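Support case: S-adenosylmethionine complex. Customer-provided input:
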Amino acid sequence: MAQVLNRSIRKWWKGAYNGVVYRYRDGEVVCEDALRLLNSLRAECANVVFLDPPFNLGKAYGNNGKKADRKSEADYRDYMTKVLVRAAEVLVPGGALYLYHIPKWAIQLACDIPSYLEFRHWIAISIKSGFVRGRRLYPAHYALLYYTKGKPKVFSRPKIPRPVCARCKKDLRDYGGYKKFVESGINLSDIWDDISPVRHKNNKHRRSNELPLKLVSRILTISGIRGGLVIDPFAGAGSMLVAARQAKMHFVGGDMDRDFLDIIDARFLSQGLARVHSGGGK
Ligand SMILES: C[S@@+](CC[C@H](N)C(=O)[O-])C[C@H]1O[C@@H](n2cnc3c(N)ncnc32)[C@H](O)[C@@H]1O
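Agent response - structure generated as follows:
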């Protein structure tokens, strides 16, 4: 059976971290409130901070009832602002902050991101199965805000396959005389319509609204750095932590619901990443 620690002094913590710690060779996952986790980290320790918080839409995550995800708008914004301010502080110079949210909140929270971070992109992640509500347009994207602390330390622009017709396999776009330049794929744009974050419950941990691995791996393709540190304080089922491990990065994840730590652990175990059974050393 796996052993759980209650203390860690690994190098990313400010002094010692006291709390439930699931330790791995390359990182740790803690049962903690996101803001407390960020406040427990050393300043300027992280290369990437990824935030996929609850959207305050009254959704029940894990054992938390729907009420936990329906704060007053002022309280929610106040909490998220503190999270964003501290997330900026824990980034190394040149590190990247990503916030995944619905447009209504992304536009407000963008105003609360410290101005010393540099805005890079509002990435629109296309969804195919939104619901039209009231007198509004059909909502067809989530926002992924991307900022860096000054000039990005790393930036790698992925290429993706050219979109083709599913039946005849012909190009869906006309590249004119430029076709030879897109033979090996097209440059990724700020509209991601080749990955759907909305999936059938059979293909994800529904209780955390797990994101597809392909989506979070793409973030690390852009901003990840081998041996660097990824922080995901709303880790849920841990997609970003799996991606970090695949990108050979260190990781610190957190979720306030302990069940998700076990879900992440099982996911890691299925990939051969066992927990380390040692004391709270570095
Ligand atoms: C949208 S889900 C994250 C999903 C995750 N990206 C994945 O791929 O599985 C948000 C997670 O944040 C957790 N959570 C909610 N409030 C929290 C808080 N204040 N601190 C830490 N975790 C929190 C929930 O339990 C939930 O698992």
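The domain at 33-159+188-254 is CATH 3.40.50.150 (Rossmann fold).

Case will auto-close in a few days if no follow-up is received.
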